[in-house]
Predict the 3D structure of the following.
Amino acid sequence: MIQRLLVANRGEIARRVFATCARLGIETVAVHSDADAGLPFVGDADVAVRLPGNTPAETYLRTDLILAAAKATGADAIHPGYGFLSENADFARAVTEAGLIWVGPAPESIEQMGSKIESKKLMEAAGVPVLTNHTADTATEADLPLLVKASAGGGGRGMRVVHRLDSLVGTIEAAAAEAESAFGDGTVFVEPYVERGRHVEVQVLGHADGVAVFGERDCSVQRRHQKVVEEAPAPNLPAATRSALHEAARAAAAAIDYRGAGTVEFLYDADADRFFFLEMNTRLQVEHPVTELVHGVDLVELQLLVAEGARIDVTETAPHGHAVEVRLYAEDPSADYQPQSGSLTRFEIDADVEFGPLAGAGVRLDSGFGTGDVVSTFYDAMLAKLIVWAPTREGALRRAVGALRRAELHGLRTNRDQLVQILGHRDVIAGTMTTALLADEDDALDGSARDLPRGLPAQAQVFFAAALACAADAAGRRPVQRRAPLGWRNVDAGPLVTALEYEGTEVKIGWRRTSSGLEHVDLYDEVEGITADDPTPLAGVPGAWQVVTRRDGVAAAHRVFLAGERIDVETPTGHVALRRVPRFTDPSTQVAAGSLLAPMPGTVVAVRVAAGDEVTEGQPLVVMEAMKMQHVIAAPYDGTVTEIGAAEGDQVEAGAVLAVVSAPENDSAEGDQ
């Protein structure tokens, strides 16, 4: 029996495994990088061991350090979580050779399925439908579009879609570089790309007496080939197709004598009612909670039982109700999913349980972060998973939207608003979504606000509430006239004006105190008749205020949270992020025209030009890596590189000048006419 388990991972999945261990009475060990030292998973474990450094290569990918941590803490088993070393056969073998229990499949099974090239051959031999492999030499125009995919790993890293044959070689090189960085293996392969298929996967559990199947999940809503929304069971599958998928997954696992929890992924072509094997993940999947909720199982517990060699009585049952999971990311969907890093000034989500089963319809939260935690640039941008179970699919979708709307996520941009849009999309509601949904609806589902006129009257009450909270906060800190009412003046010489920034636009809010209370002054001639009560502080939350505004007899309550220049407003219709506009601009913060700035903190992995080079619009100049993704900074227009501000290997902060491109003088002159 396992007595003390080390989880060779971080964040949400480490906490998930620890939760089951706590229930079973198994002691736990966390390992953590320097960047992760203050995160909740470290405190959840009974003991924790520091892995010096920050990057995955320095820490979570170091077999020697993890085995040393197990020895130092007396751990007798290792759970790999997902990502990092979870599908590394050499790591699994090293764990068993060290005399420890490996919570996962045999190294040989990992090797057989670890290469997506070789696994397809194995599946084809087992009678499972597969897609044809191509190379840069064999692919033709007729084969387009093509998908370049990393042979090792997953999560969308090392994956690119190719629509032009002349870009295939360059795309293969870029995908290989990203795969090498993420997984330590730059091998990639090329296969046909079904642009509007569905991603359906089957949960299996291999044990001493065979292979159990716990239904399927639909994971079609993806961005950058990474899953965003998952659900179980998959909607709108013909009964015969559902059964065939289950049996194909069972055959795939049996073909390699698979032991433990695993997932067999398929691409489903709904138009032709056919499916193809994509890959097998020889580990626990991120989206495993939806299966747990509809089948009433604890997959982590089953993993531990299989690893201990216990005989388990597994009964395959039909799914009960419906579960939906959404992944909350620190990213900006409206800016090409740019990852965000920094402090979460508030991270509060109402949930019925964390990391466990639900007693009935409700919300489960599997989170790796909490209020005050820092999201670093070194790892994946996922913050948490919100999972909802209800008796019906419609009920689960509705509850998920409600939980997302009530969530308070401040300090960083997240994909919360995009998730609300996705769950309300007609194709998602109908259960006909495909992997192309976000690409097809790029502008409609990017999480940004819609149809706001110049003066932004749709948000006037929100801005008014924010301005009043700022004034009340300042009044509470002044040393004199503390009893004076907010906005009071001896002589009414005009409105008080507060300047805020919203989505890159400066908005000025006028307001005054009258004999009847606080009144909004319309500076844009677009909205009138808004009044408000005096702000009241929210108990126990420093810098937070409740402001009730009124218009046309309807009252709306706003919760306003102040953190430095940032203002977060929770409104009856959702969250609005604002920034206070400083009265004076610091000259040192100004940069030269044509400056290309780092969009986020990260590492410069390539500088492809030198000062003096002529460049064309869209030409890649600098490549950065942050949060396990590569980001290309390109020339904004034709011109000359006049300055290079970073070198390969540099760690840069967000806003750092990476390069300066000057436009030709004649172009500038024309633009001034």
Observations:
- The CA atoms of residues 460 and 527 lie 7 Å apart.
- Residues 451-455, 666-673 have pLDDT under 50 and may be disordered.
- The longest strand covers residues 210-223.
